[in-house]
Amino acid sequence: MILNAAGPASSPSSEVPDLLLPRRRSSRRCELRILRISLHREMVTGGRESLMVTVAEHEAVQPAFQTAVQKPTESMRRIGGPPFPHCKMSGTPCKRSSSPRSMSRSPGRSASRSPGRSPSRRLDDTDEAQLERLYKPVFVLKPSSVKCSEGQTARFDLKVVGRPMPDTFWFHNGQQVGNDYTHKIVVKEDGIQSLIIVPAMPQDSGEWTVIAQNRAGRTSIALTLTVEARESLTRPQFIDKLKNLTVKQGTLVELAVKAIGNPLPDIVWLKNSDIISPQKHPHIKIEGTKGQAKFQIPSSSGADSAWYTATAINKAGRDTTRCRVNVEVDFAAPQAERRHIITKGTYKAKDIAAPELEPLHQRYGQDQWEEGDLYDKEKQQKPQFKKKLTSIRMKRSSAAHFECRLTPIGDPTMLVEWLHDGKPLEAANRLRMVNEFGYCSLDYEEAYARDSGIVTCRATNKYGVDQTSATLIVKEEKGLVEETQLPEGRKGGHRMEEFERIAHEGGPAGVTTDDEYEKSKPEIVLLPEAARAYEGEIARFRCRVTGYPLPKVNWYLNGQLIRKSKRYRLKYDGIYYLEIVDVKSYDTGEVRVVADNPLGTTEHTVKIEIQQKEDFRSVLRRAPEQKAAEAAQDPGRVGFDVMKVDQTSESAQDREVVKLRKTQRVVHEKTSEETDELKSKFKRRTEEGFYESISAVDLKSRKRDDSYEDLLKKTKDDLLHRLKEKEEAERKLLEEQGQITIPTYKPERVQLSPSMEAPKILERITSKTVAPMDEVRFTLRVVGRPEPEVQWFKNGVLVEKTERVFWYWPEDHLCELVIRDVTAEDSASIMVKAVNVAGEASSHAFLLVQAKAVVSFIQQLEDTSANEKDTIVTFECETNEPFVKVKWLKNNMEIFPGDKYRTHSDRKVHFLSVLVISMKDAAEYSCVVIDEESIRSSARLHVEGAALELKKHLENIEVPETYSGDFEVELSREDTEGSWFFGDKEISPSSKYVISSRRGRQSLSVKDVKKTDQGKYTFVCGELKTSASLKMKLRPVTLLQPLSDLTVCEGDIAQLEVRFSQENVEGSWMKNGTAIIASDRVHIVIDKQIHKLLLENVSREDAASYAFIVPAQDISTSGKLSVQTIDIVNPLKDVSSVEGTKAVLEAKISAQDVLSVKWYLNEKLLTASDRLQMVSKGSKQRLVFNRTFASDEGRYKLVVGKVDTSCSLSVEKVRIVKQMEDKVCSESQNVTFSVEVSHAGIDPLWIFRNQQLKAGPKYKMESSGKMHSLTVVNTMKDEEGAYSFHAGEKTCSAKLTVS
């Protein structure tokens, strides 16, 4: 049996007495101490067998120790001294002690050596001054106001200190905020707390308040969060687009566009993808850039024939429109070719001219850049690759070239770096890198097999990062010399061959010495093996795979593809390795390796088992204490032996008899066997218990009531009295028997498993103060495995269930103690203990039952008078009880502390201060007890206002039409409002009249002023009155677009249009000086600022001079209308075509450059498209089909003015004779799709991913008669998908799969 012995208290008074003292006195002390130890043991074990010591009186010697036996799980935390040594004794067992369990501390023990005391003891021993030493929260790091954009992250950081540590609460516009999807409250290890709002939304704007509170008080800080809403963006869209144009040399070329979008887009012009700038194209004039623009070439030449593109750009995107401008140039005779003839026998040296440096944008092919791609320091431009890198497959020692194009061009903060397999590319003489004008290139003068991998170009600036990657594959050519280089006669080479042969014969299957490149499917020749590991270790797998082409090997864990990372290590050195670092229990399952190449796939699966490490923590807590041999070496201990004897006694259990032997004088030394780990745990437990014990103190740091103090003192005295009586009775009994018996304590041996968990308290019980006859509930939330049992104690005594006192489990892991109809005798220390085989946990609280005191006001509030604009007025009242919670009302509405009101309580006295007095503060103020609202004290505040007078009178104003007119008057008092009148009619607030009042300033705003708003406006306030007049000022009208001469064809619609700077301008249309009256054929239209005159079915009688006159503004404009009569010179002719080929319908009319022509198919109007174009060239009118469809067949009609001509178009349908076939290939192979159609000479169309393919290095297209083919060169993985062939409206498709 192992016992613990605690040394004497550390105070000088507890030193070991001299051995010359009377032996009897020493014996009695020993007996008394052992009795206390036995009583303490019985209190701790809670119902288990007690351990007593039996000693004969003549064998007792000087007692210089204290003894206690604890449960194995308690380790050494309850006793401060080192363990007892082993010793054997003999004696007679005595009856089991039945003394009550007590939580009081033994008088012989020092408080400093008793950290395991209950909360009731600690509260009794705690100095009153220590309980009152509380500190109000203080912010050492204050949060500040934040301003951000919508979608960004808003963060508030703070650090608060206080005693005890305060709790923090967040409020948004008065509403408390907790952790949710967008609001996160986190605490760092250094004590800094953060409120993170992500993403921040406009509704998060407003006032935020953080409150820190503890028992000493509360502190708050208010701050502001401003979230700016995002701008509503709309992509640009052209509403007036460009159209193809043909002009003669020397004539005016004019193009105009109009685009909409938000914000209004910028218009950029390009000529053949080259940005038009004044420096490069001085003869081109461009007017306007925002929303609409006009493009002019005053005198065109042959060099101006080109494709012109207008691009509308804003933050939301872009839109483009383009057209073709053809300039017809007069024919000029070619000049004779000049040659330089060199006679035989003479040689002319090459002319070496100075190198001409091309502009950067030409040197690097920058003709595709747009103006928006240039760097603008006013914009936040992220890096963007407009042209990506292209993968390369090549042979060893060849040159490799990578290039890409990057925007914004000219960014001084741009950083460009090249990476190889994710790592920075190391500098070398054979590498050359270029980064100029947005052009980035990387050149390998010679590439080797080690250069194979992923090449990445990464661009970074302060606004973001972008990158583009491509694959470089360098095929290694055979360069190994296998023949021996040893001199003839040497046998070393033959011996090396013999060793290699023997090694291969004894090696694993599948390892051969031949170097053949025959294609074969993958085969796993070295199979991976199943693995078993503990949590936190490394699981390793390996395999060897053969096959040609070289197979691709992937590893899978429980069906999930494994990629290289810190946790998963993948290596290859001829053998494929997989290492899983820091394995977890959820990794248990299957590991599968898959090898595949174009010829097939193979795989193998093995098991992986992860075992949990055994948890020894619970076992260590129950470990036996030091052996006697080890403890006996320590100086200053009293030795005794423990010997088991077989004797018959009243108890059926075995006993051990302790026999004390004589001892020499012992010098005790203060020792400690506590480890740092025990000290830290002991300290935390002490801290936790301390705050639980003082939770009985009022949350506002108020002193405990006298009744509560008396109750605790009475309870303690009763317990000590019962202990003293029991000790006296026990001592007398032991003196008569002359021995002390220690019953044997045999703890049950429990086999612990790693899945067991000691009880853990999630929600502790809290102290409560209630009134008599109330019902009180203590709630405990605890978890453990197996489910713990719960025991409740009252003043250290186990509580038994009754109808009035009982406990139950309302839900899982939640136990609730209920005490009904409480009385003053129920006031006690409440403890709950949760126990299972793995350990135990406990929680403490106090229950105080006391009658509520009757609260009343012994000093009432008194009426107070103040003048307007006084600084402060204070109300004061007093209650008969201290620390009464009150609230303040204004006219029976609760008011709260802030900028206007300040509240304060000092024990019994309560104060309310009203700041910056105004007339609105005149009211009845009340102080109300929160717990009993019928108890209140009220008083009235009387405010005397200042004299009312006009400080600023109304003034006459003159306002332009449609503008707003504002009147303002200022009064001497801010709380007074008046009335507004227009003439004799009172004005009410509306969309027309806006009335406002702020700090004595009265304002009236008249919106959209018109003639009817002119007149007299008056403001009246009581007997005060002031007036002023409003006069409207007409705005001048400007003619923005006058009439111009117009020529139309007979039978068409003529439209004459003028535009003014203002809307609804009154004017009239004139024809040869005569006013025009609207009719069924003549229409007069007014659209805000635009006035239109429309003439339908124009005839020669309509040719005249037209004018628009505005008499009020003395404005007039005129233009001439000419009517042409057009005849058909060459009518349309019937045309036959094959589907998928080009067809043209052509007619000739008598007039030149007529654009108002219409084409019809079966009486339906046609519109131009990419496939169908309407061309007007001189007097010829053409309808061009780039590719005919079978649905194009029908009757076509050309209408010009009142004349028309028609013809028929017949289309012969095409059939696809041989369809495309699906293809499967490996990377870098060439794939050909073939199609056969029924007719020759059609124009085929190849489509991939909804985009038309064009012939080039990547795609080769061939057409031979009826056969058409498409070849995809060096196929890559990203080029697999569906390819389709179009012949007119007939299509077929096939799928390409790249392995």
Automatic annotation (TrEMBL):
Residues 709-736 form a coiled coil. GO terms for cellular component: I band; nucleus. Its main location: cytoplasm. It comes from the Eukaryota. Residues 1-20, 66-128 are annotated as: Disordered. Residues 137-226, 236-326, 383-473, 522-609, 759-848, 852-942, 1036-1122 form the Ig-like domain. Keywords: Coiled coil, Cytoplasm, Disulfide bond, Immunoglobulin domain, Nucleus, Repeat. Residues 96-118 have a biased composition (Low complexity). It is found in: Cytoplasm; Nucleus. It holds the Pfam family I-set. Belongs to the protein kinase superfamily. CAMK Ser/Thr protein kinase family. This is Titin-like.
